[in-house]
Structures are given as C-alpha cells and as structure tokens.
Write a structure and sequence with these properties.
Number of helices: 22
Shape: globular
Distance between the termini: 43 Å
Low-confidence stretches: 1-38
Mean pLDDT: 81
Order of helices and strands: HHHHHHHHHHHHHHHHHHHHHH
Structural class: mainly alpha
Amino acid sequence: MDDEKKNENEYPENIGIEEAVSEEKGGESPEDAGGREPSVKKKVASGTAWLFIEKTSISIFEFAAAWVLARFFLDPKDYALVGICAILIAFANIFSQGSFNVALIRKKTLNEKDAPTVFWLSLGVSAVLYAGLFFIAPLISSVYGKPELTGIMRILGLSLIFDALVTVQTALTTREMKFKRIFIKTAVAALVSGACGIVFAATGFGVYALVIQAVAMSFTGALVLFIITPWKPSFKFSAASLREMGEFGISMFTSNVLNSAYSNALPLMMEKIYAPNTLGFYNKAKTIPTKIGEAIGSTLSGVAFPSLSTYQSDPEKAKAVLRKFISVSSFVMFAAMAGLFAVSEPLILFIYSDKWAGSIAFMRFICVTCAFLPIDSANLQAIKAFGKGNTYLVLEIIKNFLGIVTVAGAMIFTRGFGWSLYAVLGIQIAVSVICVFINAFPNRKLIGYSTKELLQDTLPQFILAAVMCAAVWAVSLPGLASWLTLLIQLPLGVLIYVGGALLFKMKSMRELLEFAKNYKKSKKQK
C-alpha cells in the first residue's frame, strides 16, 4: 500500500525518458545480453533527435517557401480555394490509410504477408477515392460557387496515390524508429516542392502554384522514401492478415474519421457561412502554430508509440515513459504557444504584411488549442500502444459528440453577430481543455496514471508560460514598430521562461536537459 501511495504522487526523478525505456526486467539491457540489437534507450534518443531535426528543419524550409508565396505572390483567396480541396483530400486519405499502417507498427511480430497486404489495400482504395473525387469535383465547385475548385481538386487529388505508395514504408520506418529516413525524404521533398511553388507563382500560375507545390511534395517524398527504404512490395495478399489487424485497425480508422470530421467541419463551413476568404486567413494563421506543434508534439509522440508498445506487458515502466514525454513536451509546447500568442500581431504584420491582418485573431485562438496537443497525443499513444483500439474509439465518439454539439450550438445561437466565429473558436478551446482529461482518464486504469499526477506534470509549466505570455504581450501595447516590438519580445520571453524554470528548479526543465545529455552520450557510444 505504501508503494502504491508513493507511485500516485511521484515518479522516480532519476529516470529519464531513455532510462525509463531502457531498463529490462532483472536489470539486463540488450547490450548486457551481448549486444545482439540496439537498445531501446539508444533508439529513443536517436529517434527523438532525428524526428526533432526533421520537424524543425523541414518547418523552416516550408515556412520560407510559404512566406515568399504569401507575401509577394498570392492572396487569402488563393489559400481559401486550396484549403477547401486540401481538407476534403485529407479526409479521403484516412480511408486510403485505413489505420492498418498503425496496426503494422504495434503488431509484435510481422509475417511476410502483412506489409504487402496493407500496401495493396491502401493503393487500391486510394485509386478508387481519387476517381471519386475526380468525378464529384464539379459538384463541389457548384456548392461553393467557385469554378476553379474543379481543376484544383483533380490535380491535388493525385497526392492520395503518391501517399499510398509509401504507407507501408513509413509505418515500418516508424516501427524501427529509423527516423533518419523520414528526415531525408521530407527534406528533399520540402526543397523540391518549395522551389516548384515559388517558380510557378513567379511565372503567373497564381493559385495553381500552391497546387503544384503540394503535389510535388507528395510525389518527391514518395519517390525518395521508396528508394531509400529496403522493403519493397511483393505480389502477396492475405485476408487472414487483414482480419488479424482488422479489429485494432478498424477501431483506429473509425476514430480518425470522427476526429477529422469534427476538426474540419468548421473550416469547411467558414467559406460558406462567414465572410469571403475567411478560410484563407484561418489557414494562414494555422501555419506557424501547427508547424511548431508538429516539430514538438509529433517528435515525442512519434517515438512514444513504438517505445510504449515495447512495454505493453509492463505498465509501471510505460507510465514512467509517458510521464516523461508529457512533462517534457508540455514544457516546450506551452512556452512556444504562449510566446506565439503574445507576438502574433507584430509577427504577422512584419512577416506577411498588412494584407494578412485578418489572421491575427485566428492565430491566438489556434495557439491556445495547440498548446494541449502533446498531452492529448501522449495519452492516446499509450492507449494505442496497449492495443485498446475500442477504448480509443469510445473516446473519439465522446469527444467529437461533445465538440459537434457545442460548436453547432454556438454557431446557431450566435449567427448574425459580428463576433459569432470568435465565439465558436472559444467553444473549441473549452472543448480542447475538457478533452485533455477525457483522453487521460483510461490511463488511470491502464497504467495507474492519475489526474493528480497529470496536473503535477503540466501545471507548473502552464503557470510559468501564462506569466511569460502576459509580460511579452504587454510590450506590444505602446504601439512600437512591428520589428522593434519583436526584437524586444523574443529575448524577453526566453529570459522569463528559462530563467523562471531554473529559478524554481522545475522538474520538466531538468528532464529536458537530461534528455539532451543522454542523447550526446548515445552519439559518442556509436
């Protein structure tokens, strides 16, 4: 009983993320067993580093290209047109993937038919979906009253097929935590697609520069990953493999459909219900927060799922890993989103010019929502890693029902008011906070991770981030030039947050430093 009480209130401070997953029962590590395979510790350290390098560097490449296009060549109208098509294609892509790629990652042992079965299924479904989008494109154009959507949809839809070609390669790379391949693939694709977008925009292709950029990204990425990944598809297909992975895969698929439907319903309605080009402003406002969110959240969650899957039979070790992931990711993410919230106005005006001022308020709402994504993601990774696909599905049903009802209610009761859209976005923020606790609830029973422990792991950095945000935002009140405001705000934010973390000896700061130190050690041992 005493041990249980201790575990409810704290977790070992001397166990870093890597240490938590490198321990084996009896204290024997793979290296101690004769070095037959790389340790999970090294895989996590190396995998996390490569994922972070990939996400941050690629985000810089993509942002540079997006900045040139948005500031010098394109308008909110162009981004609104592509945004409508991109949402529909992303939704179709869920059906193409079918979540069998996730089942490939978590299945303990793969046979020779599992991977090719998923490959041919994904490719076949993507071809059917593309044909469907091709023929309904004129209908979508008529719904929005925008004839340009027909051509955009038919060209942009090709990315469905290109993405399906490397569904298995991506899953196997993630399973093995060999994220250097993903980095190479994404880096090449980002450079090629960014160059294509800028060249076509500069030569007068208008909105089609964005379309070509997106298709080039998918095609180049698929080509590179197909070449550098050892696995190649064979002409094998097994109904037995589908059935074996089906229960988990179908649950995940249904969950992804519900989540995507809720997440994308509002953006799709923006262009129909609210002012013209609203979706263009909204999509541009999402660019920086989501790129930062991907660099931080996807880095840790991408490593969390395969590493947590390694310890499906050891809840205590899985809990230690999960707490470290949540503590470190929330420490970084809260700082990034709070800082971005505070500097959103001078940042958008300085980077994109006054024509994108309509994105400022949207960026602030999005920052608050994105701040909680790593916590949500980490908790869900644990549920997936333990094979609780049905639990995952139930959570998605509850969350999306709550979101749809509240957002629809806000739209109905506030329609006609100038602040209607902001009220809807505010409701989405409230739902996202509630969902943090909904996602965490199953892990109380699964691995013994209580709500109290979750607050211990996240609340200190949240309070520090809020204080930093208020101080940095206050700098913008005098109305200084955008560049000067940013010049003061950025170092001030870093000073307050890092200084506060060191002053109060925050656990999450120590864990982040421990991780960096352990990664350096793992590099020296190679």
